[in-house]
Amino acid sequence: MPLNLIYLSYLLRTRYAIIIKAERLRLEEDAVSRWRERLDDSTYGRRTTGAIAPVLTEWVRRQHGRLTFRLTQVLSGHGCFGAYLAKIGREPTAECHHCRRCDEDSAQHTLVSCPAWVGERGVLVSVVGGDLSLQAIVARMASSEEAWQAVLTFCEAVISQKEAAEREREADPTAPMIRRKRLGRRRRNYHLHLPLPDGSRTTDTGVSPGPATAPRVTPRAVRCGVGGIAPSPPQRPGGLPN
Hints:
By secondary structure, the protein is mainly α. It has twelve helices and two strands. The chain is elongated.
């Protein structure tokens, strides 16, 4: 190998690598600084952004931890919490269904004070300490893989139970309509065309008798022909298509 290529390879591995790393760190710091400014100016999600902003650099540069659906619910406050469900019109009130002592079931209530989760909370406190404010929790998560795993375990255990309880409330036929699970148009139509145990089909106007063996004709089937074969165009006199 020519000496100039050997020397260039040496520079890339040493001197230039240091320059590239320094430039990368500078760009990262600029990005974090702009991100922090946007968080400070944000008017939404103040609980979450206020907890992450003080440790944003550590949060971005950490080499451990992953965000899951249930962990994100606790960090954001959006999920199986009475306060949030009432806000989006899925519960008539914001009360906690697990302790019946709190008029507002929030993520912080679940994390700090709801007696239904005293066992899970005790395990969490043994790792992260007694300060369960979101800012303290996030700071411990950013600095410690053990703390991150402890918070993740708490969220998975508690939120999964809250989700199961919410599904039971949705399935209760005596529950208020506001609480029941809502089906989209396509899913409603799908349920309408499911065969009943006796072989009949439900329709918009009632039950159609007979076995459910006839194919469902859809607009696409009309255009393409039932079975996916496009019908032949009508012929003009002389054999030319219309």
